[in-house]
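Quick start: what a row looks like.
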Amino acid sequence: MDSPFSLHDLVRDLLPADSAAVAVAVSGGPDSMALCHALSSCGANPVHALTVDHGLRPEADEEAVRVGRWLDGWPFVSHHILKRELDRKPDSKIQEEARFDRYTLLSSYCEEQGIGRLFTAHHQDDQAETFLFRLAKGSGLDGLGAMRRLHDYNECMAVCRPFLPVPKAALLSYCTAHNIPYVQDPSNENTDFARVRLRRSYEVLAEEGLSAKRLAVTAGRLARARDALEQMSDALWREALVSGEPGRIVLKYDLWRAAPEELRLRLVLKGLEALEPERYYGPRLEKVEALALRLYDDPDFKKASLAGCLIGRGHKDGTLILEKASP
């Protein structure tokens, strides 16, 4: 395995110290089955194995039941199927919508059960794939920083990704060594999805030195820079904040304008997130950049809309105002 740690060490490092129950997303693939087995083998915390039936394939229900049969008898593990209710099959952004609904179901279950940590089996190859996918989409530093090992998803739950330094090949070897059954998701071979097409470019990229490991290391370094900028923007936010009423945020315009461009962008994004905390995806970075540039350059700028919010200047009192737009 391309890691100085065992899978059990990586998992144990993220377990709650008080032996509280944890949840793990288990699709039935080799990655999630290896993770569930490692959690079970640690033998300190009750493990809620959660399989989401996305409702996109007729055989998905049977596959979810089969995962339960595989896990039956594993120490400390109980299996639960979460069903995604669909009025109709989405026509576009199928994987993005499925991911959003999956995390909604998983986090709702964890909140109902009082579970504070959800484990997912994202690994080194996933990290590299996410980096390439976001690079192709023109993401900024936050996007290219890719996934965190421990991430606060909301106030109630943190997402734990212990296998980020581990290549997929090591997880397959672990399953073989421990006789762990698994299923291959057919969507992983469907070239209609951009991530699958990117995955197939790995061999060419690796020949030029862009291996999954190197891409994942680069994503980690960018994440380090992202975290530093987040600390700086948090400090600037506290200094610039005049008021933060529900639906309306007021900042000191002069402090915002004196900051470096990256911090100005981050304060706008923080304001949008505070006004629309339930929004899963923020606006495209290009739109934020364009609006922030107008705010910075145009002395007569008054107000513009972005992501369901109005952003403008209070010229009389020297403020920057963000507020939810009327329906």
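That is the whole record. The mean pLDDT is 87. The chain has two domains: 7-200, 231-324.
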